Amino acid sequence: MSKSIGSIALERRVDALFARYTAPGSPGAVVAVMQGGEVVLSKGYGLASIELGVPITPATRFRIASVSKQFTVSAALMLAAEGKLDLKAPPHKYLRELAPLPVTIDQMMRNCSGLPDFLELLRLGGHGLDKPARPEDLYAACGRNRHLNFTPNSRFLYSNTNFLLLGLIVERLSKMKLGDFLAERIFKPLGMNSTQLAAGIDTVIPGLATGYLGDAANGFRRAAHAYPQGGEGGLTSTVEDLLIWSRHFDQPTLSPKTLPSQLTAVSPLTGKHTNRYRRGVQADDLRGLATIGHGGLWPGFRTEFLRVPDAGLTVVVIANLGSIDPWRQARAIATLALEGNKKLKPAPAPVTEAEIKPLAGTWFNAQEPSMFDLAWQNGEATVTQNGLPFVLGRRADGWLAAERGSFEFALKPGAKGTVRVDLGAGRVMTFAKLGRRKAAPAALAGTYVSADSGAVWRIERKGDTWEMFVGGPLIAGGAPWTVQGIDDETVEVASPAGSWINVTQLAHIVRDRKGKITALEVSTGRIKKMRFDRQD
């Protein structure tokens, strides 16, 4: 197979990006690049299995997690084209077990439904991805919930619930398992022979890579996960199968042929605010060039599917190591492939330490409520919110914004020692720097129950500290969570360290007219103001 000088040069530069993962005993990643319908690079780096010494190749299969969402949406759109599914209907029309909430199928596809993420619902009850669960447990979490994070279509907020339910709706209407429907209607017709829905973690999948956590300095360990997966993230695939799928955006053959345009169709939020999340895919920008794609994250696996339609470019990066960042790597590779493209604007000036140093610290807004730490870490402006770190880059309008589009966050200095934070959909709020934290009120001790998640929180004072004992529909017991005061009406709750991700949540204290604490309103990254009623 002959190669152009351009593809050889690109391969060598990509080799340099992934050189560290070719060291003996290291997991790694696979990369594929397609330009104008031609595959110019498809190459693996590192090991698919450290234990067996199996190298990663373009034929290696990976769990692609949330990249699955666009396929679930495609299945639903196929049924809509056949008149079997009404995109304006609520999900409970098709799943009678669900609460009748004013949400539409189309809003679910666009992550603007307001439905809380079922992973968060279960986590509030002490359960996590490393603990066994059954498909019916996940559906039950959705069925218990009566809470909406916001008025549907008023804002964007990522939620796996939307796509788990979409997959189940496809099954009800088609009378087929979602995996069988996808195979029959999408994968087989397109020749995506290495792609399948693997709902159970014990599914035997030839050539599937093992997922790892850690890094070369601290050692690697196998990533633990015990959740079944469905329409929200259950696919396994290869880079070349995803290139086949990308080509279908440019030359559609499946019915309806409008499927790619329906996936990328724009629909504004209430108030004509922009929602960059389309239908199972995310619209973004790469130095002036429009992009469409999606990322995927699961313990030990990370994926980035990136299309630059105006340049006829697709980049796919899939890793079996949690410390690799395919989002960044895919954009770095795309930039290399686009050298010489006149539409590619110069890179924005990097954020400097001098800009961040005066703003470093903890910032709080009680109204939202929301809190974050801003610091200069590892040579980058880093925000930590709800326990999770993310990097800020410079936006074209001068705001410093989260690099990724899976959530909305941008900031700039405000007046008199404040910062202005843009949380999307026109919600620009003033945050003040948090000084000395106030102690949690003594009356906080007690038991709190959430009907929407089934979680039970028992808060106790232990000398000068507070502990919280957590239980839920799937688990009871375990290490206590910690509770820390913020101001008179807000506390921060942190889950115990040592899991795949360590997260925090804020709880606003609700009082009656006499000042007695009657409830907590709990906010996490993907749940907003969910009520926990006091039971004692």
Spell out the blueprint of helices and strands.
Elements: H1 5-17, E1 29-35, E2 38-45, E3 47-49, E4 54-55, E5 62-63, H2 69-81, H3 105-109, H4 118-123, H5 135-144, H6 161-174, H7 178-190, E6 196-197, E7 212-215, E8 219-222, E9 235-237, H8 239-250, H9 259-263, E10 282-286, E11 289-298, E12 301-308, E13 313-319, H10 326-337, H11 353-356, E14 361-365, E15 370-377, E16 380-385, E17 388-394, E18 400-402, E19 410-413, E20 418-422, E21 428-433, E22 446-449, E23 456-462, E24 465-472, E25 475-476, E26 481-487, E27 490-494, E28 504-511, E29 517-523, E30 530-534
Antiparallel strand pairs: 1-2, 1-13, 3-4, 5-9, 6-9, 7-8, 10-11, 11-12, 12-13, 14-15, 14-21, 15-16, 16-17, 17-18, 18-19, 19-20, 20-21, 22-23, 22-30, 23-24, 24-25, 24-26, 26-27, 27-28, 28-29, 29-30
Helix pairs in contact: 1-10, 2-6
Give an overview of the whole structure.
The longest helix is centred in the N-terminal third of the chain and has 14 residues, at 161-174. Helix 2 (69-81) crosses helix 6 (161-174). An eight-stranded antiparallel barrel has the order 14-15-16-17-18-19-20-21. It has an eight-stranded antiparallel β-barrel with strand order 22-23-24-26-27-28-29-30. A hairpin with a 7-residue loop joins strand 18 and strand 19. By secondary structure, it is α+β, with helices and mostly antiparallel strands.
